[in-house]
């Protein structure tokens, strides 16, 4: 049976430095071994990575719980888990 919910990788965001206008693929399934980035582990599931292109080069907090409502960036939802 196919999973309906993503796997919670961890209940806090990943602080990562991202470069302006570079394309990053955020793992939405929670199975990636390279979280918070996609490593292709979603193959065969309903989940797909989400493209994120930072507006400027700086540190970002990418969601690790996969439940964020703003998809890719942490919105604090992990604090309710
Ligand atoms: S880590 Fe997912 S909302 Fe913060």
Mean pLDDT across residues? 94
Q: What does the main sheet amount to?
A: 2 strands, antiparallel
Residue windows where pLDDT falls under 50 for at least 5 positions: none
The total count of helices amounts to: 0
Helix % is under 10%
Largest sheet strand order:
1-4
**From N to C, what is the helix and strand string?**
EEEE
In one word, what is the shape?
globular
Instruction: Give the percentage of residues in beta strands.
Output: 15-25%
Tally the structural domains: 1
Bound molecules: FE2/S2 (inorganic) cluster
Radius of gyration: 12 Å
- SSE class: mainly beta
Tell me the distance between the termini.
24 Å
User: What's the number of extended β-strand segments?
Assistant: 4
Question: Could you please describe the fold and organization of this structure?
Answer:
The chain is mainly beta and 81 residues long. The chain has one domain. Helices cover 0% and strands 20% of the residues. It is built from no helices and four strands. The chain has a two-stranded antiparallel sheet. The mean pLDDT is 94. The chain binds FE2/S2 (inorganic) cluster.
């Amino acid at each position: 049976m196919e999973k309906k919910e993503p796997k919670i990788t961890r209940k806090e965001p990943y602080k990562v430095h991202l470069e302006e206008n570079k394309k990053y693929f955020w793992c939405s399934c929670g199975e990636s071994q390279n979280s918070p980035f996609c490593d292709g582990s979603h193959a065969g599931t309903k989940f797909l990575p989400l493209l994120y292109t930072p507006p400027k080069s700086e540190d970002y907090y990418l969601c690790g719980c996969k439940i964020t409502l703003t998809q890719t960036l942490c919105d604090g939802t992990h604090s309710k888990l």
